[in-house]
Write a structure and sequence with these properties.
It is a single chain. Helix content is 58%, strand content 0%. The radius of gyration is 41 Å and the shape is globular. By secondary structure, the chain is mostly helical. The N terminus is likely disordered. The protein is built from 18 helices and no strands. Helix 7 runs antiparallel to helix 8 and helix 16 packs antiparallel against helix 17.
């Protein structure tokens, strides 16, 4: 019985405990329901208006550093006496550049008042290319890095290379051009896109393409480079904003085509050059003055190939008489009709091509066996103040063929040319050509 009562008591106690807990919960809920509500209904806070932030732009690339074009080590020293600075171990050590200026041009009778510190435009206007090459290299190598804008660096570097080429130092210019490496790489493109506009001046790019082919001993590389330039020119034609700019790039595109043909001629691939120039010719109403020049080029190439009939066809296709007048006597010479060619050259004397006609007439007389007349005619041209390379070279050749004192005569010729040149617009003889530095190759010394 006690166990039964005890169990009953415990069960009653547990039930009471659960009821007490329930009652407390119910009492709390009842109290919470009696809390007075605020007089205004609850509303969420209004969102604050915020100005949208601009999208984050990628950081602008740092400016490109072209100070490597200012390193003194890339420029070879030039001097009055020796213009071949290649060391004996250089692959160009045996090139025919060793003596640079003949003695009369080292100490000319009319010393030009020019130095490397003379303003560069003055040096170029005076044809003082050696001093211009020294001046441009000095400015580049002595100016602190970062002081020259890229445009001025490129201009000075172009002047340096072009001056060396005009001094018949093309191998040396080719070596110095190698510092630019691949001028078609993205490094020389505008930073916006990898295929943007090339930042190098067009003239520098055209020159470097040729020089790097010479430096590598493979002009095929130059041809590939010209095609790269042509691709850039085509894109510029499409993107041109006005007719003038479009025509500029069309002319440059044609310039690339002419340069490719010239490379093929220089490589000795005359057949390939003729086919290439054929592809550049206009047809029918699309023909222009440039096509007349191409016809003359094709006629000359055909003569070099020995295809006189083809040269005649190109001559007939030329509408202007200006080109025909020069090509016609050359065809007669190619046929071996020197007497006819002599008369044709004589007919051109006194006209707009007088100097060229006299020079070619002298060569024609040489082939006809009239050496004395050749010498007299070439000497008269020098006395008249002419001194272009072909003239002095041919007269030096005549001296070699006609005299045992050829070297002494060639030195006298160099002195005569140096003395007849105009310095500062004046010469003692009252005439002559503008001062220009001459190399030994001009006189076969």
């Amino acid at each position: 019985m006690e166990d039964s009562q005890s169990a009953s008591t415990n069960l009653s106690s547990k039930r009471h405990s659960r009821n007490a807990s329930y009652n407390r919960t119910a009492s709390s809920t009842s109290e919470a329901s009696n809390i007075p509500l605020p007089s205004t209904p609850f509303s969420p806070p209004k969102p604050q208006s915020r100005t949208p932030e601009p999208p984050l732009l990628p950081p602008s690339p740092p400016p490109k550093d072209f100070s490597y074009l200012q390193r003194p080590g890339i420029f070879h020293p030039l001097s009055n006496l020796v213009l071949n600075p290649f060391p004996a171990s250089s692959p160009n050590a045996n090139c025919s550049l060793k003596p640079g200026h003949p003695p009369p041009f080292r100490t000319p009778a009319h010393t030009p008042p020019l130095t490397p510190s003379t303003p560069l435009p003055t040096l170029l206007a005076a044809h003082a290319y050696r001093l211009a090459a020294i001046s441009s290299a000095t400015t580049l190598s002595t100016t602190p890095s970062g002081s020259l804008p890229p445009s001025q660096i490129f201009s000075l570097f172009y002047t340096r290379l072009a001056s060396l080429v005009l001094l018949n130092l093309t191998p040396l210019a080719a070596q110095e051009s190698k510092v630019l490496e691949d001028i078609h790489s993205p490094f020389y493109r505008e930073p916006s896109t990898a295929t943007g506009h090339n930042i190098l001046p067009w003239e520098l790019r055209v020159l470097v393409v040729r020089l790097q082919g010479v430096a590598g001993g493979d002009l095929k590389r130059s041809i590939v480079g010209y095609y790269e330039l042509a691709r850039d020119a085509r894109r510029e034609v499409v993107e041109a904003e006005n007719a003038e700019e479009k025509q500029l790039w069309k002319d440059r595109l044609r310039e690339c085509g002419i340069a490719v043909g010239n490379c093929l001629v220089e490589m000795g691939d005359l057949g390939g050059a003729r086919r290439h120039f054929e592809g550049l010719r206009g047809r029918g109403e699309g023909r222009g003055n440039e096509d007349e020049v191409l016809d003359a080029r094709l006629a000359l190439i055909s003569l070099k190939l020995g295809d006189v009939d083809a040269a005649r066809r190109y001559l007939e296709a030329t509408e202007g008489e200006d080109g025909k007048e020069i090509i016609r006597p050359l065809i007669s010479m190619a046929d071996g009709r020197y007497e006819d060619a002599v008369e044709e050259w004589r007919a051109l004397r006194g006209g707009p091509h007088d100097t060229v006609a006299a020079q070619n007439l002298a060569v024609c007389l040489l082939y006809a066996g009239k050496l004395d007349e050749t010498s007299s005619l070439l000497t008269a041209l020098v006395d008249a103040g002419h001194s272009f390379h072909a003239l002095t070279f041919n007269l030096a050749t005549v001296y070699e063929l006609s005299s045992e004192r050829s070297r002494a005569k060639k030195m006298e010729l160099a002195e005569k040319v140096a003395g007849s040149m105009i310095v500062d617009g004046k010469s003692e003889e009252g005439g002559g050509s503008v001062w220009a530095e001459r190399g030994d190759a001009d006189f076969k010394l």
